[in-house]
Amino acid sequence: MRKMLEPPLARAAALRASDEDLTSLEAILERQAERIRAGEIAIAEDNAFHYRIATAAKNQVVLRVMDVVMELLQDSRARSLQGPGRAEKSLGGHRRILSAIRDRDPDAAAEAVRRHIEEIEQVLFSRGPGARGGARATSTAGA
């Protein structure tokens, strides 16, 4: 679901984001980095980042859909941010997304989100200790 929804939102955000949207996205990433440095899981910041991209896309219908999707994926988002280096990897993905949006590059923004979601899928569906298996068709990728 996220692969269908979020790349087009990032594409639209690259074209429509206001200066206020960009400032807000930057502030969210600063808070996320601070939480990671403190050894905390930055779930609220992760959610806020993805939601702000949807806000920057300026599509109220899709924004309401994102409300539902974010709620449904809350557990998988938390799981995806746990584990060694995972939070830093998520932050790196967010930085790539913001860079493309700031550069007003819709193709790069959509690709950065797609890549970010695929990295999350790898974490959620790996067969490592404590990992939950599952078919990609039922993916509920977080972060």
From TrEMBL:
Q: Does the keyword Ion transport apply?
A: no
Organism superkingdom: Bacteria
| Gene3D superfamilies in UniProt | GntR ligand-binding domain-like
Keyword Transcription regulation carried by entry: yes
Q: What positions does the domain GntR C-terminal occupy?
A: 1-119
* UniProt KW keywords: DNA-binding, Transcription, Transcription regulation
* Pfam short name (any one): FCD
Per its UniProt record, what InterPro entries does this chain match?
Answer: GntR_C, TF_FadR/GntR_C
Classification via SMART domains: FCD
One GO MF annotation is:
DNA binding
The name under which this protein is listed is FadR family transcriptional regulator
